[in-house]
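Assemble and predict.
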Amino acid sequence: MSKVNVWLYDNLLTPDPNDFYGKVKPQGTLRNNDIADAMVKEGTEYQKETILNILDRSDRIKVSKLVEGYSINTGVCYSHIGINGAFHGATDRFDPNEHRITASFTSSTALREELKKTQVEIIGAATTEPVIGKVIDNLTKAEDSTITPGNVIVIKGNRIKIAGDDSGVGVYLVDQGTNTRCKCEQIVTNEPKQLMVMLPDLPAGNYILEIVTQYSSNNSTLKEPRTTPFEHVLIVE
Amino acid sequence: MSKVNVWLYDNLLTPDPNDFYGKVKPQGTLRNNDIADAMVKEGTEYQKETILNILDRSDRIKVSKLVEGYSINTGVCYSHIGINGAFHGATDRFDPNEHRITASFTSSTALREELKKTQVEIIGAATTEPVIGKVIDNLTKAEDSTITPGNVIVIKGNRIKIAGDDSGVGVYLVDQGTNTRCKCEQIVTNEPKQLMVMLPDLPAGNYILEIVTQYSSNNSTLKEPRTTPFEHVLIVE
């Protein structure tokens, strides 16, 4: 039986001080390499290289089949592609500026069954930790979705001011494909509830925003910086 | 370079007769078995059984890691779990009636890159085919999401009346885990734009709704029944 720990956070969007929302405490990120390691650890006749090669190749095949219009149903999720945007008349053409092909995903039955069985432990209100509530692309006004390299993002939250003399403090974007951490050198506004940050020239990809700070709300500085990741993936297109 | 065909459908939600939306023409559903076949067909040193075994095991490991709070990043999608529902006060407990652990998914960078490169061909307005627009659970009023066994669902659309003397005509739910097709024996309302159907006693799972009919809007009956799947997965919890 699996168990997750959940932190509670004051919901900043309601005036009720007793209104909290939960976040599952993150355990880290696993990639095909880690899945292959886990399979070897469980015990298997296959070499790790074999497992990893097959997982990587199957991912490539799944992507190539999805973009041909196939649905892919695995033990983790069901996925298919669709098209967004309105067409004006039955003879309208595809226009990349108006229409977009996107993939959508639904949890598999197996995953949903396991989620139902998962034990939840509320480990209390995370009142002293920084909380990132929302990330807004100041150019497009997109919230918690796309970001634009070379433009400003607005980060709203609590206790997110970047402070301290540790060389690691700052705002980072971590490429989820390569795990590369890119530091944002220019912080335009630096307040406990709001940061405005100039993004560097990031390649297209999926990113996790992290803030690293020694800021503490009781006017002291923490001895060690702490790292707070934002839970939503930010996308550079 | 991949290419998808897109049908256009009259948008029933707007009065504008020139307002259309697109649907990618479905190519079928692929499971791990089909992915393994595709890999063998490409050419590989591995046996199909090896590939299938590794894909099934990796799915099980991914599910078990997700429900422990890990994020999983593959070449297809990025996934993690979260918790829905409000907590009333910092000492509130987890209540399965109010709170729910769910998984969310984002397309990987590789998938998004391929979607961008995909050629789209508009193959015209699909005006003669049945169109399923919306499926409503009459008990919970949930739209295009959960359905309740032993209760009525409302299907809205165009040309969806069940007609014809072929033994195959009717409303079906296809279990996406097992591919089992379950026929709904009791059709309460049967009109061109609306069906009300009593659901049989379905096990928990993800289902695709299909209507099979010889109905035609010009008062004739089609010689052969045609099968129309609904694009959204319907969930029995």
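The helical segments of chain A are 32-42, 48-66, 109-117.
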